[in-house]
Input
Amino acid sequence: MANELTGSVAPNDKTAQAPLIEVSERDLKYWRFNLRLIVITLTIWAIVSYGCGLLLRPLLMGIKVGGADLGFWFAQQGSVLTFVALVFFYSWRMNKLDEEFGMEE
Output
């Protein structure tokens, strides 16, 4: 029953319930693959950005790339280029996954 002062619906009103959505095993499998891909790409990004650029910089200082040490290169350009590459990889892989599960546009 609707509250006339606030316009809200009482919790025991059946029209206030959200519709139940059936989730199939195929849907769950799709989201497992998707979440695993997200975790993998974020892990690679974190390792390259923070690991190579900050934490491993002392170990990478002796290796020269374009006149600068490798740790500096990862901190300045490598992490950005890796991020862009991961965006394209994620897009390509998700398109393949969509095709596999019949969810292409």
Observations:
- The chain has a mean pLDDT of 81.
- Helices lie at 25-55, 57-60, 70-100.
- The beta strands are 64-65, 68-69.
